[in-house]
Amino acid sequence: SPLPVKKWVHNISAFTKKPKTTEVTAGSAAVFEAETEKSGIKVKWQRAGTEITESEKYLIKTEGNKHSLTINNVGKEDDVTYAVIAGSSKVKFELKVKEPEKSETVTPAEAAPAPAASESPAPPAESSQNTEVSSAETKPEEPLDPIGLFVARPQDGEVTVGGSITFTAKVAGESLLKKPSVKWFKGKWMDLGSKVGKHLQLHDSYDRNTKVYTFEMEIVEANMTFAGGYRCEVSTKDKFDSSNFSLTVNEAPVIRTAETCLDLHSETLIPFCRGEGKSESQSDVDVWDILRKAPPTEYEKIAFQYGITDLRGMLKRLKRIKKEEKKSTAFLKKLDPAYQVDKGQKIKLMVEVANPDADVKWLKNGQEIQVSGRYIFEAVGNKRILTINHCSLADDAAYECVVGDEKSFTELFVKEPPILITHPLEDQMVMVGERVEFECEVSEEGATVKWEKDGIELTREETFKYRFKKDGKKQYLIINESTKEDSGHYTVKTNGGVSVAELIVQEKKLEVYQSIADLTVKARDQAVFKCEVSDENVKGIWLKNGKEVIPDERIKISHIGRIHKLTIEDVTPEDEADYSFIPQGFAYNLSAKLQFLEVKIDFVPREEPPKIHLDCLGQSPDTIVVVAGNKLRLDVPVSGDPTPTVIWQKVNKRNDLLRNTEDSITPSENSSDLNTDNKLLFESEGRVRVEMHEDHCVFIIEGAEKEDEGVYRVILKNPVGEDKADITVKVIDVPDPPEAPTISNIGEDYCTVQWQPPKYDGGQPVLGYILERKKKKSYRWMRLNFDLLKELTYEAKRMIEGVVYEMRIYAVNSIGMSRPSPASQPFMPIAPPSEPTHFTVEDVSDSTVSLKWRPPERIGAGGLDGYMVEYCKDGSTEWIPALPGLTERTSALIKDLVTGDKLYFRIKAVNLAGESAAATIKEPVTVQEILQRPKFWLPRHLRQTLVKKVGETINIVIPFQGKPRPKITWLKNGQTLDSKDVGIRNSSTDTILFIRKAELHHSGAYEVTLQIENMSDKVAITIQIIDKPGPPQNIKLVDVWGFNAALEWSPPQDDGNAQILGYTVQKADKKTMEWYTVFDHYRRTNCIVSDLIMGNEYFFRIFSENLCGLSETAATTKNPAHIQKTGTTYKPPCYKEHDFSEAPKFTHPLVNRSVIAGYNTTLSCAVRGIPKPKIFWFKNKMDLSGDAKYRMFSKQGVLTLEIRKPTPFDGGIYTCKAVNECGEAEIECRLDVRGNQMNPMDNPNTAMKRE
């Protein structure tokens, strides 16, 4: 048997790297690259099915096993499908062309990014037979001759039972020397060439103009067994191709009976999700009905959708259910074919028996059920009820109710509750190349879930990119190395819920929140270079004059979170250099300079007045900027002899007062009184302190805070004089968090976010803002922008309709990011519905207009609150509400309109998000009754006499047309109808005649008239009420002779208002008086009753018959007819018994067979012989009667030997021998058993069906 097509495809794949669909800007160049497994393979490129030749526009390159196609100056006409062909492999891809943006000029280099090389092995390229090439794409006028032989492949088909369908395959024959060989298969190995007959026809033809071979397979009068997968294989001397397709056979529409309707009380298995976790109930789903109607190819999909775990068992049971049961004498009502119940619920199984006193037995899987707390038996009149409480999976079984020798069979299916998603997916944002792991938690361990990306199911076979993992109740989807193409919405589905999350994959960008700054330090001081970047995982190196800094005991390098530090202790002149920090993997270079300050003290004579040596001591104070949280170290060189006293003070700018650490305020004139120890002003230890040295003093603030900002005054005093200087310290910090953002302009998947600047910018201007978003029930915030937002508003997109979100904002200045703002008010992206459809005017009168419409195509998560109907007068622009408030119906009657007005009408659908676009009547509607001629539309069954029986209900409905509303008149035989006896109901579109209980006097000719002004229409209806006739009259026994009696009678006086169709004649023996019918439907009024028994006396009676049936009573003869005895006796003839014996003879021989190992097979023949011959089976002359591997059957002369799962050793010569007393006969055949070639990768369900 031929190998499965999919396996063959993978074996011949010629590509190791396939070109990908690319999007470029018009005017730029596009590059497609492919790699073949071997070098030297000839590669062809195609554009829309036509081979590309090298030119200025198309540049084709080949280097070893690498091949490329460059398309220069791309235009809109290049937006088509391309293909690359190597050997027998063909890969399709697309070029998508977009218009260039006005604000930017895209260079060809930007528009043609090099295809990303994936580290994981690319999946093998699909060959031509797996490329989706529809027959519509291939033009018959220009037949292609690709590497794959098919020009047009057979497509999937659908047919109703009893219908016919034709599958067509076309093969290019231009390059073929002779006609290709074509085979059609069903499943994997059944060759249909041997099945041609009444239901299957194969045709082929050749078109000499187009050089195309056409092969057709026609299926005639299809039945359900024809459904399944098919394959068409075409082969030539050196080429081979095949195509798979499937046939779906639908049942003819039938009326469901009570037996086929299953009472499945279950909740909807897959609820419609609105938002996160909310579900709306749907109507109950009849899984059995779905399976019964579905084609076999859909069984697996239905099993997953509705949570079916034992699909094979259900299909077996479904076969049994379809068998019709014979009428029962013991049961008035049997069990339904199947019942379904939720786990933990109770179920009642009920039958009705014919005998109220009958005893019943209940069996479960063939074993009698005993009374217990869970099983309760009830007998109520004719009803017998079995109640099962707290159903478990153990109760999922076959049940029987037995009354005497009769049984009623049913199946009980216990359905486990749907699998719910207890912890939904979280949105994720990663950089290119990072690992992504989506995690969700479901209500049951080991549950089956389905993953989708943007609505397309993810499977292990599609790509090696995705990995699926189960850990108890947790389900994982893992992407090891993410790419930009992985961005999108990922969905996990169970049979009880859905959860959606968004993945955003960003290219790696690095922002510098704080760069390193130039430093000037003195000898033996500490120098600290610090920078802050956006990614805390980024590592980097420090350079000194271009050479990497090696840390040691004096030089320390640290990386904590986003902050990188280079600390140099005990600075020396050799440390003066340019220092740089380079983040790994990014083209950044953060540089700063370290300057070494040498303190030179000139020789001064004794008694030198104090002097403060600062770089700038002018009228304006020197400003020192420090980042909040950092250490401020202020070195002030001083001189003076004797050594001056140093006093540090913080100046209050408002009244120029001095503030010491004890917050005492004194006038500046009193500063001479402060000539005391420094401890009175500042501590020598603690966060804010002063350190005194011989030639300088140091002012230190550990972890600067906002309160430390201000003007600091240093005063030097000695007996010779004093000096002072003001130093301004400015503390800068990250901004304060902004206030919570506000959300406005909410749409289907977008909203507008607005916010205000922070109250305090940290002393540095705000550079921009960062926006984050999260789902209300989630804890993970997702960043929405990587480039800082300069404005105070932002339009957020790509949200999921119906999900509740929150937003928050960060402010960013040169120091860094603020803390996050409070979260915004929760909001839900919803959109108004689309406009209503099929909006039309149904009717118009002098003061009303009737409108109707259909619901919108898209309603969305906001639901539908109702419809708003408005009208506008012709020539006006004011729209007036036509109805008070909203209407939930899809029709409306607008009343109290002015006759003659011309009005436009429009309708809008309304939900939480607002109003939809309006659906409008294009032409104005004139409010005026349209005159329409009166006319009856008499139903076909009323055009002939309507016959009803006495006591039946008469309900005659006659539709009509006519405007304005016509006047309706009913007459019977020219007289007005009696309203007490007959009911008449009239509407604007029909008139109804109603008689609750028909009597004979209701018969007659009825006439109904329709009148509008001087126009009218009338119809006549004849009603005939019939009853059973009276008995015949004047019955006479005319004559009696031999074994015969002659009767005569006259027709009945009352024929029941219907023609007498005949008579029923019956006889009764005087002894028993049991009546037997002699004639029925007898047309004459006289008859002769023959074959009467000698010596008996007979009475006769006669019933008359019409359409209504037999008369209630019969006419009976007064005197009996006596049949006289005669003296003759009867002697029966004597016959010789015939000899029917016959020697055995085979009427149908055994046939040589070749079968596949592992599948049960049978050998059959037919034999004739009297008496019935005794049968013996032999294999290679060995008797098989004692071997359990073989089963022998004999039915109506047909002999069958069943061999269970044969192996190659079971092949050989099999002989069947028949022996009786008249002789013997034998016949033999050969059986060959081939090895099982089934691929282990084959679908196990296919193997199951095969069994």
From TrEMBL:
What are the GO BP annotations of this UniProt entry?
A: cell adhesion; sarcomere organization; ventricular cardiac muscle tissue morphogenesis
- Please name the SMART domains in this protein's record: FN3, IG, IGc2
The protein depicted here goes by the name Myosin-binding protein C, cardiac-type
Compositionally biased region (Low complexity): 108-128
Which PANTHER family did the record assign? MYOSIN-BINDING PROTEIN C, CARDIAC-TYPE (PTHR13817:SF20), TITIN (PTHR13817)
Q: What is the lineage of its organism?
A: Eukaryota, Metazoa, Chordata, Craniata, Vertebrata
- SUPFAM superfamilies per UniProt: Fibronectin type III (SSF49265), Immunoglobulin (SSF48726)
Ranges for domain Fibronectin type-III: 737-833, 835-930, 1031-1126
GO MF terms here are:
actin binding; identical protein binding; myosin heavy chain binding; structural constituent of muscle
Q: Which keywords belong to this entry?
A: Actin-binding, Cell adhesion, Immunoglobulin domain, Muscle protein, Phosphoprotein, Repeat, Thick filament
Q: Could you name the Gene Ontology cellular component terms for this entry?
A: cardiac myofibril; M band; striated muscle myosin thick filament
The organism sits in which domain of life?
Answer: Eukaryota
Provide the Ig-like domain boundaries: 140-248, 326-403, 417-511, 610-728, 934-1022, 1144-1228
* PROSITE patterns with a match to the protein in the record: FN3, IG_LIKE
Which stretches of sequence are listed as region Disordered?
97-148
Sequence similarity:
Belongs to the immunoglobulin superfamily. MyBP family.
Q: Name one Pfam family in it.
A: I-set
